[in-house]
Amino acid sequence: MYAKGFLVAVVISAASIIPTQAAATTLRIVANGTTVFGATAPNVGSARAYIDTTGVARKLAAKTALGQLVAATSYTGLSYTAVYFEGLGEQITSIAGVKAPSGGYWEVFVNGRPAMVGASSLKLKTADTVVWLLDNDYKLSNGPFVFELAAKRNADGTTTFTGTRIGAARPTPAAGAALSGFGVAGAVLDAQGQVTLPGLPAGWQATIAATAGTSASQILGG
């Protein structure tokens, strides 16, 4: 994947400054069809503590999904709200000022699959892709979906784009989705969610355009 930045931040508690740990892990936050963070697929490190709604700083293991969220919000000035429940852990109730409504929740996906553990227990590995997606009604079987896009430069000078649809129990190819942007406009992903293009012009940009019920992908460039 091209054109990824890297965010480094600190978490400030009443007693200490805890530096983040670097991890080549991308982060994207999507609410109501809009990417509120991660439009250019940045890599984000992971903090070692978070502040709950009572103002208490709670420790985190290295390289967790919650630590990554804290690192991103600390660096950018975006906010998060984490309610701590004794014996159960935290619940993320808002991100970037967007509060989950009654009956909805913020869901985290890693490599296109929904997390099976809480964000403070979810350990990230190098090259993981993390997406936080706001679901306004958990009772709906067909909730919100987002597109993810990857680009790989091949030895012969071509570039292969791979699109994925995320929001269900498992990711599926973004078959038939169209690329838009400079140097790629008009390309359509095949049944496997891929398309290979010849040498791209300098400064190219690519995204998967939004469709009904699905948010556009992040923007890649090279």
How are the secondary structure elements laid out?
Blueprint: E1 6-7, E2 10-12, E3 17-19, E4 26-31, E5 34-37, E6 43-44, E7 49-51, E8 57-59, H1 65-76, E9 80-85, E10 89-95, E11 98-99, E12 105-110, E13 113-114, E14 129-135, E15 145-153, E16 159-166, E17 172-173, E18 179-180, E19 194-197, E20 205-208, E21 214-215, E22 220-221
Parallel strand pairs: 1-6, 4-14, 15-21
Antiparallel strand pairs: 2-3, 4-5, 7-8, 9-10, 10-11, 12-13, 12-14, 15-16, 16-17, 16-19, 18-20, 20-22
Main attributes?
about 220 residues, mainly beta, Ferric Hydroxamate Uptake Protein, Chain A, domain 1, five-stranded mixed sheet, 22 strands
Structural description of this entry:
Strand 9 (80-85) and strand 10 (89-95) form a beta hairpin. The protein folds into two domains: 6-135, Ferric Hydroxamate Uptake Protein, Chain A, domain 1, CATH 2.170.130.30; 145-221. It is globular and about 55 Å long. The protein has one helix and 22 strands. By secondary structure, it is mainly beta. Helices cover 5% and strands 40% of the residues. The protein has one helix spanning 65-76, and strands at residues 6-7, 10-12, 17-19, 26-31, 34-37, 43-44, 49-51, 57-59, 80-85, 89-95, 98-99, 105-110, 113-114, 129-135, 145-153, 159-166, 172-173, 179-180, 194-197, 205-208, 214-215, 220-221. The longest helix has 12 residues, at 65-76.
